[in-house]
């Protein structure tokens, strides 16, 4: 399927649903004073995964991933740190270990656990890894096995990432234009169910990421010589984010709490793209829509090699000067810039 052409044909249809709202409203009221999170639990996809994917399946375990940190591939979809690492640093807790390494690193389970798997969504995708519902099942099993207690979870924070794999899967499986708004609604509704399950497990602060501007990912901007975003895709993102804010507000009312809040990744990305506060939060990125690591042709991707082991990708000379690492994921410096934006710093204040 020619995804960009399909999305362009959606433009007029979705404009009926969206209008031109640019901002996502971030979450609910602040934490009670004196709250000190002791653990962090992570659910979602490659924007949060720190090593759960199988080495035989994921590019995140291939060179040159991890060249900035820790110096070799370690399962992160970046040259270094990802969103999880920065949020953990804000909480002053250690980055939680990946679920698949829980037995080898049993001494670190006290800091929480990362259940996120790259390529997954709230529903099953083309990646044979556990979706978000199954990830929450893993937490429930650990509670049943007394690895954690429901009481201990009351001093924990959950980070939930949904970066768009459900939508990529929808397009890849020939989803119709007319059905897209309803599908977006079903994704957010399932995400709402998942957030409630995490809350019911005992976690009292749950941060869920807004959807980033998908039309600005290099896989989309490549069609425009990395000079502009696909506005149609970003209009779909706005619908998702509007529904997400409504879902979070509904959950706070339903639980009579201020447990849920949105990390406004959407506008944080835009702040970096627009170089707002650039001198404070980031260097001047070279073209922010062009990736550092990319395949030498459309048939290859970052980390790919041919049958003789010859590299079929190129890497920029300095990842610190690029916002995107590959065609989907930010560099470590990109994530640092996003984390440092005023909009995300204000969101994170709700943790305390």
TrEMBL record:
Stored InterPro entries: GDSL (IPR001087), SGNH_hydro_sf (IPR036514), SGNH_plant_lipase-like (IPR035669)
Keywords, in A-Z order: Hydrolase, Lipid degradation, Lipid metabolism, Signal
Pfam families to which the protein is assigned, alphabetical: Lipase_GDSL (PF00657)
Signal peptide start and end residues: 1-27
Gene Ontology BP annotations: lipid catabolic process
Signal found in the keyword field: yes
GO molecular function ontology, one term from the record: hydrolase activity, acting on ester bonds
This protein's record includes keyword Hydrolase: yes
Family recorded in the similarity comment: Belongs to the 'GDSL' lipolytic enzyme family.
Name assigned to this protein: GDSL esterase/lipase
Organism of origin: Hibiscus syriacus
